[in-house]
Design a protein that fits this description.
The complex is a heterodimer.
Chain A (H helix, E strand, L loop, with lengths): L1 E3 L7 H11 L2 E2 L7 H10 L6 H15 L4 E5 L10 H11 L5 E5 L4 H11 L4 H32 L6 H17 L3 H16 L11 E6 L1 H5 L7 H7 L3 E4 L3 H10 L3 H11 L11 H13 L4 E7 L3 H5 L1 H11 L2 E7 L6 H22 L1
Chain B lengths: L2 E4 L9 H10 L3 E4 L5 H10 L6 H13 L5 E12 L2 E4 L2 H13 L6 E7 L5 H11 L11 H4 L9 H5 L20 E5 L2 H4 L8 H7 L3 E3 L20 H14 L6 E7 L3 H17 L4 E7 L6 H17 L1
Parallel strand pairs in B: 1-2, 1-3, 3-5, 6-7, 6-8, 8-9
Antiparallel strand pairs in B: 3-4
Helix pairs in contact in B: 2-3, 10-11
Classes of the chains: A alpha/beta, B alpha/beta.
Protein name (chain A): CoA protein activase
Organism (chain A): candidate division WOR-3 bacterium
């Protein structure tokens, strides 16, 4: 079974080894780029959100690479995300591709278990052992990935040479991909901490801190958010995303971090009483948590035309006004020009810098 | 006496008769905003986030127009209805509307919600909570609308199951009678198509161009029913899919007009499903999709409608 799955950010580093351990043959297309965007924009409905277009483009590429099963997380809810799998399957089938659609949904746990057992030749005990091993490896990979990214985010604003910091992240991610033992991955974590700490320092003592909130795909996938974490980091702003690959997997797979989500929900209650999807309530809650923790600003990212992402904007603005946080909203689509964005980010960074100085004195 | 304001916008209008009866029973005065005016649209467009769809912006305008004339705002949150086909959900923007309005217009009168989430409680609970939010706990004569009009007495059929107003075939007699009059099935949210300010008078323009308009859910489908690839679990969108494919399966219908507003999130999915199903089963059917936004010049629209109708007439 050659399995492909839509992914964001570096999540493939975790999911592909899990699938391999389970006995499947994962097909991983390259991270979203111009080609997948062009494909997706051509095939998808015009007013669909950008995560749909990019993942569709990537699915075409994985089918070209020989995938025969497409796995989607789906559900029925008012956000369009729940229908990605079925709509993309319609589009791809009309193009003449033949494949099997496997939907991971809450009401189909049984089917998923059967699928996993079938991958182990129909032997439940073997499947159980393999699943245990796969999850253990996946967990370690995910932790190593999170460590590398965390160290990178902390080191970048104070790095004397940002490009060497970037290169180190690239090397670290390759190391995560290449290491397949839990022990090796734990050693990698310790190495990352050390290596990033050893990078030459630019002498900056205080830097503005920003929380990145918004829709999950836009928060996690650097291709679509113009790598906003790196861009702001190079401008001397420390960015903390409210959601990372590790947290996304941990929460959606095992409800890890449910306490924090509850906290965010409670905090958001003043402004937002009903969650409609797209991490609206969660973003709002994290904006308020950021204010509590002394952050200087918040960047909100959402796909253009995202239903929850659009309606939550006035509430985010009101909340950031009430808390005195700097606020910037980025609406993302297939637009590729970076000049306008660079200007906005520079102005935002300068504004935060000034604000941080004022608060400091 | 509490004056309760209701916006004549979005899918909430479907509940209007029930709300009026209910609130009158509780001794409230009901103020419904006037039909959409240009001024309402403009004030809504100024206030609301740019990326919202036109009907939601217009709804903001309705709220602004009512401001100062009412003590409370009544806004619906149609989150989920249990139907025979399983739980179906409302549009996210409409669900989030009360929260958005609160953040957008801070000095708005307090908003009371008609929160209908049938995963958690039925309609009578929604009414009870509404009465409590208004500070009126006492049950008045007349009872809850749901008791007055129980489910089993309502008109049946997939559309009527979730909407109070039965949307039925509105094509009129002699659909295929006049040989030279093309029949155009118009599909789209009622709050857009029936609002001549938002849709720039789409229906009168179609009539003026010489088309006969078919609307609503057809009572019977054609010889071979057209099935969609899949149906998303959106309450009102399922209705649109049934309407569109129902009309598309009837041979006397010459053209299908899909109307939507720019940045309408649900129609991006729904109309794609409709177009694919039509292409598979009745490829010769002409389909026109019109996207409305706050642009006000009707000339382009008239040209497109006229050429569409003319094309259908030539084919006939």
């Amino acid at each position: 079974m050659r399995v492909a799955f839509p992914y964001m950010g570096e999540i493939r580093l975790v999911i592909a080894p899990i699938l391999r351990e389970l006995g499947a043959d994962p097909v991983v297309p390259p991270p979203p780029d111009r080609e997948s965007r062009t494909l997706g924009v051509q095939l998808a409905p015009e007013l669909m959100c950008i995560p749909f277009k990019l993942t569709l483009g990537n699915m075409v590429r994985s089918l070209e690479m020989g995938a025969d099963t497409l796995v989607y997380v789906s559900g029925s809810w008012s956000c369009r995300f729940g229908y990605y799998g079925r709509l993309q399957a319609e589009i791809l089938r009309e193009m003449g591709y033949r494949f099997r659609l496997l939907e991971l949904r809450h009401d189909n746990i049984r089917g998923i278990v059967q699928e996993v057992v079938a991958m182990s030749g129909g032997r439940p005990t073997r499947a159980l052992v393999r699943a245990g091993r796969a999850l253990r490896l996946g967990w370690h990979k995910s932790v190593a990935l999170e460590t590398a990214q965390r160290c990178f985010r902390a080191a970048l604003p104070v790095a004397a040479r940002p490009e060497s910091c970037r290169r180190l992240l690239g090397r670290s991610l390759s190391a995560v991909e290449a290491t397949d033992t839990p022990g090796g991955l734990s050693r990698l974590c310790r190495r990352f901490e050390q290596e990033f700490a050893e990078l030459p320092h630019n002498g900056r003592k205080r830097m503005p801190r920003v929380m990145l909130v918004g829709e999950s795909y836009c928060t996690i996938e650097p291709f679509v958010n113009f790598d906003v974490i790196r861009r702001l980091g190079e401008l001397g702003v420390a960015v903390e995303p409210f959601l990372t690959e590790h947290r996304w997997l941990g929460f959606h797979g095992f409800r890890i971090g449910a306490g924090e989500l509850r906290r965010a929900k409670r905090a958001a209650r003043r402004y937002w009483r009903y969650c409609v999807g797209g991490e609206d309530e969660n973003s709002l809650g994290h904006l308020l948590i950021a204010a509590e923790r002394g952050y200087d600003g918040v960047v909100h990212v959402h796909p253009f035309g995202c239903m929850p992402g659009t309606v939550v904007q006035p509430a985010l603005e009101a909340a950031s006004r009430d808390c005195g946080l700097g606020y910037m909203s980025l609406s993302l689509d297939e637009h590729t020009g970076t000049a306008g964005l660079a200007t906005r980010l520079e102005a935002f960074a300068a504004m935060l810098e000034r604000r941080a100085r004022q608060v400091g004195t | 006496m509490i004056r309760v304001g209701i916006c004549r916008a979005l899918d909430g209008v479907r509940f209007l008769p029930d709300w009026e009866a209910f609130l009158a029973g509780l001794g409230c005065e009901i103020v419904v905003s006037e039909p959409t005016t240009r001024q309402m649209v403009e004030s809504g467009v100024r206030q609301a986030p740019a990326e919202l769809c036109l009907p939601v912006k217009a709804c903001v305008g309705h709220a602004l127009a009512l401001q100062g004339r009412v003590d409370r705002f009544l806004l619906p949150r149609i989150v989920c209805r249990r139907t025979k086909e399983g739980p179906l959900f409302g549009c996210p923007k409409a669900i989030a509307l009360p929260d958005m309005l609160r953040a957008l217009i801070p000095d708005l009168p307090p908003i009371v919600e008609f929160l209908l989430d049938e995963r958690e409680g039925d309609e009578s609970r929604a009414y009870r909570e509404l009465a409590e939010a208004l500070g009126l706990r006492k049950r008045r004569a007349g009872g809850w609308p749901t008791e007055k009009w129980p489910r089993e007495k309502r008109p049946s059929g997939p559309a009527a199951e979730w909407s109070h107003r039965q949307v039925t075939e509105q094509a009129g007699p002699g659909l295929a009678g006049r040989a030279r009059t093309p029949v155009v099935a118009v599909v789209g949210h009622d709050y857009l198509i029936d609002d001549d300010e938002l849709s720039l008078g789409l229906l009168p323009r179609l009539a003026a161009a010489g088309a006969q308009v078919a609307r609503g859910t057809p009572e019977a489908s054609g010889a071979a029913a057209i099935l969609p690839g899949f149906e998303p679990d959106w309450l009102f969108e399922r209705e649109l899919i049934r309407q569109a494919l129902g009309w598309a399966s009837r041979l006397e219908v010459d053209g299908l007009l899909l109307a939507t507003s720019f940045a309408c999130g649900t129609s991006a999915v729904t109309y794609d499903i409709i177009r694919r199903a039509v292409r598979r089963h009745r490829p010769e059917l002409a389909v026109l999709e019109l996207v409305f936004d706050e642009q006000t010049g009707p000339a382009g629209l008239t040209t497109r409608i006229e050429s569409f109708v003319e094309l259908l007439r030539m084919r006939r």
